[in-house]
């Protein structure tokens, strides 16, 4: 290479493509295939079907981006997530709350009276509420529940209350729902138990959605549900992601659970 510093012109040796060797062989092979190169234009489409699919996919992606994000209006310390335990009478609601409280706090709860709030993680509190079995109670509960545990007596099947409550949930923005089957120890026949579980699962799926979570509590040990099963259920509740419901942000609601007159008696007199 010679550089002429005066005119700043360079003279380069001309490029000569390979005539022999592996690279030359490959090139020859590529060009000889159907008379065209393997990759004539790397990013241009060669199939119209594929191109159409690609286009609709990119449009979909764009739509998703444009979707209005749900606004989380909460600020400061987060309120506890309300886990509502619903079911017909004597299905085991109190027992389930007691078992879950025992799991989280290692304390025995003698009686369930009103909502119970426990700390389930560094950033999370969970409040267990037993759903009242009257229509007004259910309507109130549907408004504040973040997760509804629907208890179903496995030996009996679905009862009216569960369907009623699902309907109420539907018109209140539908929070998360999980099913829990109890009284499964009443089955003596293993085959029948299996069949019933299958049947109830599919019934539950048609009501909620295919693949909705259903837990099985197989029986009692020392008057409590099996530790392992409660552990699994509690784990699910602890890691569950709760998104703000758009219905709820659009329909603010205050539930008054107590009304006290605090005027000093002196003043009244
Ligand atoms: N064999 C069996 N008994 C159960 C099971 N679950 C609950 N029980 C029993 O059912 C009875 C009622 O349980 P509770 O927890 O009081 O039911 P509940 O739904 O709170 O009842 P109400 O508050 O009256 O609606 C208790 O004696 C439990 O021991 C189960 O899976 N198997």
The SSE order reads EEHHEHEEHEHEHEEEHHH
- Mean pLDDT, all residues: 86
Biggest β-sheet: count, sense, barrel? Answer: 6 strands, mixed
- Small molecules (ligands, ions, cofactors) in the structure: guanosine-5'-triphosphate
State the end-to-end CA separation: 113 Å
Name of the CATH architecture of the domain at 81-246:
3-Layer(aba) Sandwich
What shape does the CA trace take? elongated
CATH class of the domain at 81-246: Alpha Beta
Helix content class: 25-40%
Summed up, the helix count is 9
Main location: nucleus
GO molecular function, one term: ATP binding
Catalytic activity: GTP + H2O = GDP + phosphate + H(+)
Biased composition (Basic and acidic residues): 1-12
Descriptive notes:
- InterPro entries: AARP2CN, ATPase_AAA_core, Bms1/Tsr1, Bms1_N, G_Bms1/Tsr1_dom, P-loop_NTPase.
- It catalyses: GTP + H2O = GDP + phosphate + H(+).
- Residues 1-12 have a biased composition (Basic and acidic residues).
- It is a single chain.
- The chain has helices at residues 22-32, 48-66, 93-105, 135-144, 160-170, 190-207, 227-239, 246-250, 265-268; strands spanning 3-4, 9-10, 81-86, 116-121, 124-130, 147-153, 176-182, 214-216, 220-221, 224-225.
- The longest helix is centred in the first third of the chain and has 19 residues, at 48-66.
- It is elongated.
- Helix 3 (93-105) packs across helix 7.
- It is an alpha/beta fold and 269 residues long.
- It has a domain at 81-246: P-loop containing nucleotide triphosphate hydrolases (Rossmann fold, 3-Layer(aba) Sandwich).
- The chain has a six-stranded mixed β-sheet, with helices on both faces. Strands 1-2 form a two-stranded antiparallel ribbon. A two-stranded antiparallel sheet has the order 9-10.
- 39% of the residues lie in helices and 16% in strands.
- The protein binds guanosine-5'-triphosphate (GTP).
- Guanosine-5'-triphosphate (GTP) is lined by residues 87, 89-95, 182-183, 185, 217, 219-220.
């Amino acid at each position: 290479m010679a550089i002429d510093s005066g005119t700043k012109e360079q003279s380069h040796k001309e490029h000569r493509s390979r005539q022999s060797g592996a690279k030359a062989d490959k090139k020859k092979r590529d060009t000889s295939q159907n008379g065209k190169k393997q990759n004539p234009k790397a990013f241009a489409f060669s199939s119209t079907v594929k191109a159409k699919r690609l286009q609709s996919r990119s449009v979909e992606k764009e739509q998703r981006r444009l979707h209005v994000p749900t606004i989380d209006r909460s600020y400061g310390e987060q309120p506890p997530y309300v886990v509502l335990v619903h079911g017909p009478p004597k299905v085991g609601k109190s027992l389930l709350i007691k078992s879950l409280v025992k799991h989280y706090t290692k304390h025995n709860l003698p009686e369930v009276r009103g909502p119970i709030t426990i700390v389930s993680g560094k950033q999370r509190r969970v409040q267990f509420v037993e759903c009242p079995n009257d229509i007004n109670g259910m309507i109130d509960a549907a408004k504040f529940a973040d997760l509804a545990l629907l208890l179903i007596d496995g030996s009996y099947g679905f009862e009216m209350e569960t369907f009623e409550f699902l309907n109420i949930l539907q018109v209140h923005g539908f929070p998360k729902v999980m099913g829990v089957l109890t009284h499964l120890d009443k089955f003596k026949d293993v085959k029948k138990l299996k069949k019933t579980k299958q049947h109830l699962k599919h019934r539950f799926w048609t009501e909620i959605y295919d693949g909705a979570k259903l837990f099985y509590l197989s029986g009692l040990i020392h008057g409590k549900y099996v530790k392992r099963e409660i552990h699994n259920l509690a784990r699910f509740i602890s890691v569950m992601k709760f998104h703000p419901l758009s219905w709820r942000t659009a329909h603010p609601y205050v539930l008054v659970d107590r009304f006290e007159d605090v005027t000093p008696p002196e003043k009244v007199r």
